[in-house]
Amino acid sequence: PDNDKTIVRPMPGGRRGKTGPEVNADTEHQNPFAESDFLQPGRPLSVAQQTDEAALITLGVDSGNIHPNAETNGFLASSSGLMLFAVKLRVTAANQDVNAIFHQCVDSVKAFELKLTNFGVPHQQVVSARYMLCSFVDEAILSTPWGSRSGWDRRTLTSTFHNEVHGGEKFFDIVDLLRKDPRQYVELLGFAHACLALGFKGRYRLINNGETNIRNLKEDLYQAILQTLGEQEYSLSRHLPDDDISNQGGKRRFPFWAVAVLTGSALVVAYTTFLFSVNKMSDPVANRLTAIGLEIPVLIKNPRVPTTLSMLSLSQYFPEEIEQDQLYIVEDAHKASIVLNGLGLFESGSAAVTEARKVLLAKLAGVILNISADILVVGHTDDVPIRSIAFPSNWQLSKARAASVAVLLEETLRKRRIEVEGLADRQPLVPNSNADNRAKNRRVEITLFKL
Fold first, then answer.
1. How do residues 285-296 score in pLDDT, each as one tens digit?
2. Alpha carbon of residue 368 to chain centroid
3. Distance between CA 124 and CA 63 in Å, rounded?
4. I want to staple 400 with a disulfide (CB 3.0 to 4.6 A). Which of 6, 126, 173, 351 is the partner?
5. Shortest CA distance to 185 belongs to which of 261, 259, 122, 256?
6. What domains, with CATH codes, occur in the chain?
7. Distance of CA 216 to the CA centre of its chain
8. Calpha distance 237→220 (Å, rounded)
């Protein structure tokens, strides 16, 4: 349960050696989050562990090429490649080679852990950072239409490295532990803040006021980092000779990694704002282009009667679903349109089909399998704009939802060509004048054109 608290006990033993064994997910502890592996807020650092922290500060940077006081966040330096890769995947709509991506991510996580271990980072911090990184990447991939249907949820990074079926559950528990001793764990707090700034939501993704909770947490972490860095000279000064310290002129400096985190967050905001602005300006153009397309008359060849199941009998296969308003079917001499009600088909702002509707789509695919027809899947939204990194406008959201439905159909109709299209709010069934009408306009249409 989300509210379960972990009992934290001191970890026996001294400092881990600077050279750690090669990371292997298969040989990890039976319970990777054993009590001794968690962070321990308030526990004083030994001299050896302070040296570990010093090693962490310069992690990922060739010390021969920098001044000994140059500082960076080792967790971010070691994971930046994988994190940026995950962010890129989050906004990729096209299907990907999931197996190749999985193995690439596993190798990257192993490299991340090995770097931290070899630089003497305490094991508890390594495990905690690895868990946060795995959770971040898993969520980024599972939030895409292709990732949600790829089987990634049956073989996640958190299950591979931490034997946890429901990935990401402990992310915020770890953050709570970090916040109890921000002076000791300021770098891990910075790493957690970066995960949140780049879109991780975890348990707050689908709950009421989840966005508000995430926003408040990011602000709290931001303030904790600034306050901590303002209270102490967070540098290598305690590990350096006095003459090196005197060269700093007694000034308190923000470490480079903190500047990088704050600058990175600002860049994410700037990029997002730019993305939304571009899409807002392009929406009228897309609307005009769509309107031009609607004026072109449809040319239909002389239809031939299908040699298999007639589409005019489609309704008889879905009496309960039609009665429950999950779908309705519109048919004429040349085509049949299966209209899926958007209510219950997707969560708000999401393109992933809900578990409750996957059964319906599997049934639909089984019926369509016996029909000789070309297939077009079209997504529709209401007129309420959406502005998110994944879906900068309703055009992207409507097409992504259509793609999610098409992916589920393709699991049965493997050799059939399915066209996908998104029309945003350009073809409303009823005026978008109230909440009920908007709900009717949010839909996905599966149109079968007779051959």
1. 455 544 444 444
2. 32
3. 25
4. 351
5. 122
6. 25-268 (1.25.40.590), 297-450 (3.30.1330.60)
7. 19
8. 27
